[in-house]
Amino acid sequence: MRSEVREALIAKLTALADDEVILAHRGSEWTGHGPILEEDIALANIVQDELGHATLWYGLRQQLDGSDPDQLAFFRDAYGYRCCELVELPKGDWAFTMLRQYLYDLYEALWLEAAQHSTYKPLAEAVQKIMREERFHLQHTQAWVERLGQGTDESNRRLQQALDMQWGYAQQLFVPIPGEELLVAEGIVPDLLPLRERWLEHSTRHLQNAGLKLPINPGYQPTSRAYHTEHLWSILAEMQSTARWDAEAKVW
Amino acid sequence: MDTQWPRWEVFKQDSPNKPHQAVGSVHAADPEHALLTARNIFARRPQAVSMWVVRAEDIYSWTQEEVAEGQMTKGESYQAQVGQYLVFRKTSHKRSMTFVDYVGEVEAATPEEALKKAQATFTDALALAWWIVPADRVYKSDPSPETIQSWFAPAKDKTYKQQQYYATVGSHISKHKVGRGVEDEE
Amino acid sequence: MPVKYGVPSDPDYNERLAEFEARIKRGEKIEPGDWMPEEYRRQLIRMISQHAHSEVVGMLPEGAWITRAPTLKRKMILVAKVQDEAGHGQYLYHAAETLGVSREAMLEALLAGKAKYSSIFNYPTLTWADIGTIGWLVDGAAIKNQTMLAACSYGPYSRAMVRICAEETFHHKQGKEMVLLYAKGTPKQRQMAQDAINRWWWPALMMMGPHDQDSPNTEVLVRWGIKTKTNDQVRQEFINEHAPEILEAGLTLPDPDLRYDEKTGNWLHGPINWDEFWQVVNGNGPMNKERLEARRRAHAEGAWVREALEAYAAKRQRTAVAV
């Protein structure tokens, strides 16, 4: 692998993993506080799956540059993280959480489907594993969007509010990282442009069926993964507090 | 008044040649939601290949004691019509995490008649409890290989939920009794 | 359906009670629909709902550390463990529901502060090492009880316990692994582990409940096969198993009277501070108010979600009927 392709792949894997870590972090804030026991359990499944996916992505990076997954997750600061801003937004209410999860799951499911045929074997193999779980996540969150959208006036209003907030942020999922075009050219990762078309088509149909209106003005759409929301610093401060508490500790 | 949603009994099949077994219940709003929920609750660990859910109130149950006492009539919520009924049965007092097992179907006009037919049909073992379920009240998970892969296979990789994952080094209690040192059998 | 919960004023009560007790002696399981004394049902609902509430409230002290877990693996394990606790609460509410009490009613009693739950969860989790210690000691103590209850005479409770025991073993193991690791770790890790053991040891011993002579329910519970061991028996088993392992790890226990007794083969403990126990049971533990408040908040904030799905289901049913 040429070194600039390798560098781009390392950056892409990091972005994929960071998204999962931070989204899992937000999801895990619900554990013990869900609206009903059954859904507490359901969301905890999603969180575990995402942490598993992050571990896989970091693992692929480790094969390329030897970096330790826990070092990456727990000893990088907000300057080093490459997650998108959508996953950083505070957990909000159940409608906010389910909608974000749905928009993300739909993107991920489509991305994985296209990445199945990656020319980079280790990536294609990881995709096979992750895809199984992602299919179920999407079924689950799709069902929630439909039910909250068509439930009561209040649930519809809350979901609409979440959509108005998130729609612009979600577009960042389709902004390539610097150097991504090299990976696309090599057939290592799928081109985000056609994926975005499919994502728009699916999500628009499903959201409208659920009785929601797409925002006419999506508002702010983040474009760079080098900068973040004002929340990331606090997320990391909390998340890394134990790991960084004892500088001498080798294992936890 | 708070709602915890209706209760649905869940039947899980561990592998293709085993019967569906009653594993417990979930609270869910509608049939599709109940199936998703059943998967979330009862497929956190292996094994499963299929799940069924039924509203708790659509199940007609008889214990051996009730049958012996001739208490045949059950509630009247179900509109009697000739149709298929699923039959589930419990045959052992042995320690178990499941209740009744699926044994087959009978055609009948009422749940009571279905029970009588079941008693005449499934005679290979003594029934300690019967569940009779109108077939049109049973909701089943999608049997396609993709769904089985997506719903049930990933649990096998979640090895951190198994105790064998943890290589705890400890000593057997007898080591602390004076004089003898016995290695841990773990 | 005739409800068959017998009371002593029933003409055939003594006869049926004798049959019922004979069934239990023979090792038969009592199933929903079978005749049972109303007192058996009452005791079961009391125990099972308390047990369910304990699982649900028990999610909180550990759940508080999910966002601070020090590795990806530990985070995943902790989410799975707290999730299991929700699952166990779920299984147990199911067992109680088979006795004709609704989950709505049980939760209402919990949130109104009328229901009890294990008082261990009214202690705070101050450091990450508390997570390991809870797994090792608190789950270790819980498993002792649960293993006993898996043999319980009431079918649904027994089945829930069998499932819970199978899942719970990893909770204990991951906690033990963690504490042993920190006991051999850096000075800070060691000190953190010791501090956690110091704080959780006595509350763990209190988990089995008052001494036998102060436990009025035990006799009838044993006779009806709900419990098969007394509180003190279970407590002794727990100490015999855990005390030597903790000492072996190079940690100490906060009981100056603790010693191994050659004659009986038991590890004997010093006096338990029952005054503290009753203070916590009666609502004055460090976290009683916060725990209940957290449950109330989650319940209240989830109300619109539960209503929404109910409304959706009703609409769907109307459409289905119209078609």
UniProtKB/TrEMBL annotation, chain A:
It holds the Pfam family PaaA_PaaC. InterPro entries: Aromatic_CoA_ox/epox (IPR052703), Ferritin-like (IPR012347), Ferritin-like_SF (IPR009078), PaaA_PaaC (IPR007814), PaaC (IPR011882). GO terms for cellular component: cytosol. GO terms for biological process: phenylacetate catabolic process. PANTHER family: 1,2-PHENYLACETYL-COA EPOXIDASE, SUBUNIT C (PTHR30458:SF0), PHENYLACETIC ACID DEGRADATION PROTEIN PAA (PTHR30458). This is Phenylacetate-CoA oxygenase subunit PaaI. It comes from Meiothermus hypogaeus NBRC 106114.
UniProtKB/TrEMBL annotation, chain B:
Gene3D superfamilies: Phenylacetic acid degradation B. It comes from Meiothermus hypogaeus NBRC 106114. This is Phenylacetic acid degradation protein.
TrEMBL record, chain C:
InterPro entries: Aromatic_CoA_ox/epox, Ferritin-like, Ferritin-like_SF, PaaA, PaaA_PaaC. One of its GO terms (molecular function) is phenylacetyl-CoA 1,2-epoxidase activity. SUPFAM superfamilies: Ferritin-like (SSF47240). Its EC number is 1.14.13.149. Keywords: Oxidoreductase. Pfam families: PaaA_PaaC. This is 1,2-phenylacetyl-CoA epoxidase, subunit A. It comes from Meiothermus hypogaeus.
